[in-house]
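Exercise 7. Given the encoded structure of a 353-residue chain, write a plausible sequence.
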């Protein structure tokens, strides 16, 4: 399969004629991507969180193609992306007042909400569950693609399953060239970690996957209690062979976001972490390994979120065999979301110093 690269980047400057030519190119790329999706094909698209791998959410064959392209377990649900709240009408008939308040506050944006699904939503899209995860991305290119196609677009992260999520079109190309029909070439993802996933099917909203939208922000809008899935606090390797239940949100399985090399996380006072990281670095170098240090700052969690996956991918590209990383402050809700990804990346290998 040939993977088409469809350029949707606009220049920062240029003459009026050059800008008009660029806008025409972007429109043509979006139209071509739309046709691919309507034919049941797959197109990777940019979002503010990470790049997504898109297919028609109501087409069971498209869902199967997504799982095959990623090498993803078919019980791992796909998030459905929409550009207009009216598209919810084909996905669910149970949109609560709470959900409406959250949409007004956070859509478009990095919040995914889980609803009871209508029968027309294929089980392939929902991982066999009777619920559907939906969000409205905050990216003008992808919103234009959804509108142009007239489809609800299922879109997990556009990478091979288990590895670090892609935050640039080049990351997608490295993983999925020859596996999908097209890639929209846009800029880097602003946020860098996937959306918050909030289950609204119970009496109390529950965060299943932490992200940039925090429980505190959600509670401020709803005026009520927000719970956290207890599984988020299990910092150990789970035995998938023992029969974990089907995940209700993406990223709930153990093996996720992992680089190719071994990774450990150092947790403790900042200066002590830096000293221990340097000691381990020198020790592993002496053993003949290729080593990298990823030392993040609690003072700039936005930068840590933005760069985490890109740094893990850089380590893979450079054949790094051992990664020593510093923990971030998990008492902060954004820090907790970053640590959620880091812990899975490292297989929950944490050393306290």
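Solution.
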């Amino acid at each position: 399969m040939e993977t088409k690269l469809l350029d949707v980047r606009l220049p920062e400057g240029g003459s009026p004629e050059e800008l008009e030519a660029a806008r025409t190119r972007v429109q043509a790329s979006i139209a071509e991507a739309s046709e691919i999706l309507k034919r049941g094909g797959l197109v990777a698209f940019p979002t503010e969180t990470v790049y997504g791998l898109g297919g028609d959410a109501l087409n069971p064959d498209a869902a199967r193609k997504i799982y095959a392209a990623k090498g993803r377990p078919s019980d791992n649900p796909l998030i459905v992306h929409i550009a207009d709240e009216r598209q919810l009408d084909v996905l669910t008939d149970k949109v609560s007042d709470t959900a409406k308040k959250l949409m007004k506050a956070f859509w478009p944006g990095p919040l995914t909400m889980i609803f009871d699904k209508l029968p027309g939503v294929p089980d392939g899209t929902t991982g066999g569950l009777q619920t559907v995860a939906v969000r409205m991305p905050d990216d003008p290119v992808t919103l234009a693609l959804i509108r142009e196609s007239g489809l609800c677009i299922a879109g997990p992260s556009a990478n091979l399953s288990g590895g670090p999520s892609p935050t640039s079109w080049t990351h997608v190309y490295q993983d999925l060239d020859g596996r999908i029909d097209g890639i929209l070439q846009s800029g880097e993802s602003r946020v860098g970690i996937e959306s918050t996933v909030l289950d609204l099917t119970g009496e109390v909203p529950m965060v299943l996957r932490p992200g940039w939208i925090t429980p505190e922000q959600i509670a401020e809008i709803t005026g009520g209690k927000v719970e956290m899935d207890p599984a988020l606090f299990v910092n150990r390797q789970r035995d998938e062979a023992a029969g974990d239940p089907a995940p209700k949100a993406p990223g709930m399985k153990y093996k996720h976001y992992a680089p190719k090399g071994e990774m450990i996380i150092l947790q403790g006072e900042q200066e002590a972490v830096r000293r221990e990281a340097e000691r381990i670095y020198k020790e592993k170098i002496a053993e003949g390994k290729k080593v990298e240090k990823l030392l993040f700052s609690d003072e700039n969690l936005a930068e840590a979120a933005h760069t985490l996956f890109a740094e893990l991918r850089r380590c893979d590209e450079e054949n790094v065999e051992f990664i020593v990383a510093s923990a971030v402050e998990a008492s902060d809700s954004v820090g907790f979301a970053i640590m959620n990804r880091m812990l899975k990346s490292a297989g929950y290998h944490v050393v306290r110093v």
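Remark. The chain has two domains: 4-231, 262-352. Students should compare their own answers with the one above.
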